[in-house]
Amino acid sequence: MYKVEKLKVNYKTLEEFKKFREYGLQELSMFEDLEANIIEDDSVSPFYGIYFGDKLVARMSLYQVEKKFDRYFDPAQDYLELWKLEVIADYQNKGYGKALVEYAKSFGLPIKTNPRVKSKDFWDKMGFSSVAYEMERDRGENPLVWYPDGVKEQLH
Amino acid sequence: MYKVEKLKVNYKTLEEFKKFREYGLQELSMFEDLEANIIEDDSVSPFYGIYFGDKLVARMSLYQVEKKFDRYFDPAQDYLELWKLEVIADYQNKGYGKALVEYAKSFGLPIKTNPRVKSKDFWDKMGFSSVAYEMERDRGENPLVWYPDGVKEQLH
């Protein structure tokens, strides 16, 4: 229904990112690296997004964590960490967030995210569930995970 | 000026925690462990707080991370991770947050926190600074750190 695109790092994209609430050190760092020519214009980013016309209206960041760092899944394996899933205000409740999460699932890897507290219903619908809290791993996070077939929670 | 207390895990404290915005899996897990007698009433918690009368008005969680996991400080060492620093609405701007952060500093260890985006001015005043963003370490975080004398940023 919506076309999910891998976002390139360039000034146009970084300008669009300013419309999102969860703008932080990651984006500032990309901007500084671009200005200092540490990264090239149009280099790959960890962000995926959906455009409405030429306007970026939804985005998420994905990072593949290596198996040796996996403390969430059994069997231990590479998994995706998903963060900064966000749809800008006028475009919410139209399926953009769902389209991004389904895109993330299409890689076939387990997914872990640390959502904002008020988004629980959305993540329930997406098939994500809580893990048993472990302070030394989770600190102040509220981890939610998605298990592909054959994967379950890693118990410690 | 204010007395900082280490909070015990009991039903009264867990009830007070519900007044704080950043109530999440950590608190729910403590509640379930108490109900299931997995932890005893009045067992130690990672939380510190300040009472106004018998009302908990400010809190933070602290956890000492072991040197072998330190990816922020040079020389690598045990450090404190601080999260869920929060003062309830009617008691803000009265020095409660500052008192808690100064208490954390009094342990003499470096501190790392991942604050909400809008609290930058507060953390500046507390002497915290940004680190160079590293995606595989920081993901969606906006890490701020405080260096005791003789400690600097760990560069990778």
UniProtKB/TrEMBL annotation, chains A, B:
Its EC number is 2.3.1.-. It comes from Cytobacillus solani. It is an enzyme of class 2 (transferase). This is Uncharacterized N-acetyltransferase AN957_10620. Pfam families: Acetyltransf_1. Residues 7-149 form the N-acetyltransferase domain. Keywords: Acyltransferase, Transferase. GO terms for molecular function: acyltransferase activity, transferring groups other than amino-acyl groups. InterPro entries: Acyl_CoA_acyltransferase, GNAT_dom, YlbP. NCBIfam families: PRK13688.1.
